[in-house]
Amino acid sequence: MRDYKKIKAYQNAEKLALEIYSVTKRFPKEELYGLVSQLRRAAVSVTANIAEGASRQHKKDYLNFLFMARGSVSEVECLLTLSNK
Fold first, then answer.
1. What is the rounded distance in angstroms from the CA atom of residue 38 to the CA atom of residue 27?
2. Which of 53, 56, 70, 81 has its CA 20 to 30 A from that of 63?
3. Which tens digit of pLDDT belongs to each residue from 48-75?
4. Is the model's pLDDT at 2 over the cut of 90?
5. Cα 48 from chain centroid?
6. Residue pair 50/13 in contact by the 8 Å Cβ criterion
7. pTM above 0.85, yes or no
């Protein structure tokens, strides 16, 4: 089992999630159940997938969770782009 807290991608994902929470506090209140909720969920999903994958015994499973984390990063990016527009 890998220690997910030592994985650089996890450390960066944790920073991302904390920053998303900080930034979304300034979003309009009407977005609380829309973009805010979705952005926060996607950002937290990145860290959760890395942590869950790190606990898997087989490399194939670990990589699958890393791919899911990467998908969540793309989701965050998409939602931030939409938010800026």
1. 12
2. 81
3. 999 999 999 999 999 999 999 999 999 9
4. no
5. 7
6. yes
7. yes
Distance CA 76, CA 72 (A): 6
Token pair for residue 23?
Answer: 């930034």
Kindly report the CATH number that applies to the domain delimited by 4-84.
1.20.1440.60
Whose CA is closest to 20, among 72, 85, 63?
Answer: 72
Q: Do 62 and 54 form a contact (C-beta atoms < 8 A)?
A: yes
Residue reference for tokens 């790190």:
54
Q: Measuring CA to CA, which residue among 37, 20, 36 is closest to residue 28?
A: 36
Can you give the length of the chain in residues? Answer: 85
